[in-house]
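FORM 7B - TANDEM STRUCTURE REPORT

SECTION 1: FIRST PROTEIN
SEQUENCE AND TOKENS:
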Amino acid sequence: MTASMSPASSSSSPAVLVAGSVAYDTVLATPGRFSDTLTPEGLDHINLTFPTPVMRRSFGGCAANIAWAMHALGGRPVLWGALGADGGPYLERFKSWGADLSGLIVLEDCFSSQCFITTDADGNQIAAFHAGALDRADEAPMPEADAKLAILAPGERRATLRQAERCVEAGIPYLFDPGQATPLYGPEGLKTLVAGAFGVAFSDYEAELIERFTGLTPRLLAASGKTVWHTHGARGSSVWRPGAEAPEFVPAEMLPEGKSAVDPVGAGDAYRGGLLWGIVEGADPVEAARAGAYAAAVKVTHRGSQDYALSRAQALALIGKTSESSKVR
């Protein structure tokens, strides 16, 4: 079945399709260190249990996290993907903030995507991901919204390729964000998805993988007419305009006064949500990256990937806007 609900306060904003994972995150913390238990000589016959006195379950998934950041700035994200039979709590959450769910399908014969993350005292992580409904996201209908833009965030290979085809057929420009799924797309999949995109967003690690699989560097992507947002974590991001010989650097935003970084999970998604919001507000690629940096800076000061608020006025100031007159129509 498909669940839909019209957006509320953000209904006047241009719609942005947000495709990718919608997942539950279960984060466990063990007081010890993995290195105290995992030894090189024992890696071929592991049988371990880590005590985890701390457990936190939260709403996650790249598409949902990106959509939250856009929503927090007054944007109009349209979810495009799949939930499983256990997706009820997520649907209620989406409805609570007026999300447009016209492209979200609920599959009753599988689980929603789930990520189980165990973190040790040094911050190292061991994660297990169950794709569940994500593997069948290509069954989700094309959203009914009159979208001006789309982002294809990390997802299942077949579904992402099909969503790219649908965007091209509908004349909707899309930003390709390969993320953790970069190796899963394979060389040909990456080339196809990049070719149809107006821009690409990736981290340092993902940039290395893309170059290894396809030979494409940020410079070559820019030379081919793509806009490239290359993120460097807490160091900021490099923005390559189409045809540019060199990138423009956008530093990371300062953390809110009196706050400290407590949770980096979801910061990249927050960046992308701010970035997309900036683009549909009429910002150029560098200005949009500033909005993304702002969203990421606020996010890291909160635990969970969708539990923070953003200032639309502050974000508008960062992109040199002070009114509603500059939106993409």
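SECTION 2: SECOND PROTEIN
SEQUENCE AND TOKENS:
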Amino acid sequence: MRLNNNISSLNIFREYNKNLKLNSKSLSRISSGEKIIKASDGPNEMSQSERMRIQIRGLQMAQRNVQDGVSMMQTADGALSSLNSILGRVRELVVQSGSGANSPEDQKVIKGEINQMIDGYEEIAKNTEFNGVKLFDLKNDNGEAVVKKSMQIGANSGDSMDIKLYDLSPDKVGATMIDSNDEKKIDSKKTLQYLKDNLDIKDADFVDKALEIVDAASNTIVDVRSKYGAISNKFESTLGNLGDFEIATQRSESRIRDVDIAEEMIEFTKTGILIESGNAMMVQSNKFPQDALRILENVKSR
């Protein structure tokens, strides 16, 4: 029995402080929902969790990019559908112009409507855009040809794809010819613009020449629309995959970072009981010096 150092009380106080810290830690975890709040709580787990969080944010942004790509393809598809409808009407008018019952006035009206339809075609091809990006006008602000757009469709380097753009203006679509290098090239005398400006509806071969141009332009539109449809399907598939990857990564990050509330409540309750027990024991242990004092008093009375 000692007066200067109450060893029992000191031991109880040491355990009391330890339980108090554990109780405070449990309370902090329960209130935040995380078992790793600062790096010292788990350096390795913290680094793993942070890398996963960065990956998750990248996947979320990639999904937004892909959704933008889907919307862009839908915009392009709507415009291409309109262009094809216009060419269908132009073809009807060309065939109609071949009727021998047409008067010169009828032919003039037919040619006027053909020209108006081609003007409407040019307006759509020139002004179709998505978020300020021209889809069928391949000239940028510097007058240079833009033949593709790069789309980031993943969270990592290299997860991108190029979307080829096509110039569908009236002077760029029509029948092709083989040049000196054995490559296909648009024949300037077989374009929609040439049909509008140069072909005379009164010529005997007007129908044949016009149909060749319109059919070639229509085939180009259908081909481009088919390619953009395939790209749209790829975007839809990629969007689903990115969503699956994000959920899987979030699940893994949650196992590392998030606290099990039930388990932590058990720890919080346990340490709370131990703290109350420590308080009670310190009250008892602090009576030891008083017991020593009573012994001394008894000695003095004798």
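SECTION 3: OBSERVATIONS ON SECOND PROTEIN
The longest strand covers residues 184-191.
The beta strands are 129-130, 133-134, 148-152, 160-164, 174-178, 184-191.

SECTION 4: SIGNATURE
Preparer initials: ____
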